[in-house]
Amino acid sequence: MLMTIYLNQQAIQTDISSSLFHLHAQLSLPNQGCVFSLNGQVVPRSEWQHTKLNSGDEISLFQAIAGG
């Protein structure tokens, strides 16, 4: 069963049992340089696997950009 969450203000569908860890994998993001904010609170990487998502959650994704 799917639910709707909002990633950077865009509605996306994900499984109702998803966690931030699963979302990271679903989006095929790099292992380093990603930060998630869930409903306005930054979630440490060490908590991604245990942070369950709920329908309507607002998630912001920030990615580090290398440059010079």
From TrEMBL:
InterPro entries: Beta-grasp_dom_sf, Mopterin_synth/thiamin_S_b, Thi_S, ThiS/MoaD-like. CDD domains: Ubl_ThiS. Gene3D superfamilies: 3.10.20.30. Transmembrane segments: none annotated. This is Sulfur carrier protein ThiS.
